[in-house]
Amino acid sequence: MKRGLPAGQRHLFRLPWTSKAQIEAEVGDEFEFHIRSRAEELEATGVLSEEARRLAEREFGDAATARAYCRQAGVERAR
Questions:
Q1: pLDDT per residue as tens digits for the range 1-13
Q2: Pairwise CA distance, residues 36 & 4, whole Å
Q3: What letters, b where the CB count within 10 A reaches 16 and e where it falls short, cover 27-59?
Q4: Rounded alpha-carbon distances, angstroms, from residue 3 to 77, 78, 79
Q5: Residue 5 DSSP code
Q6: What pLDDT shows up at residue 8?
Q7: pLDDT band at residue 52, thresholds of 50, 70 and 90?
Q8: Are the C-beta atoms of 8 and 63 separated by less than 8 Å?
């Protein structure tokens, strides 16, 4: 049994994304924003640019798994 709204009403509550490619782009942009923001914070403390980026990515953790999780959640919510 499928849960949720009837098909005729489902379109009223969809997220603004219309395709998996758009979801992928949004997730990528969001991750990049957070990594870039952290790298800028590190640079402000005197860390060199390349090292700051590397440290920010390391602090962020397993980005590939997190991206996959967010993409899947976005796809499921868009249905």
A1: 455 555 555 555 5
A2: 37
A3: beeebeeebeebbeebeeeebeeeebbeebeee
A4: 13, 14, 11
A5: S
A6: 53
A7: very high
A8: no
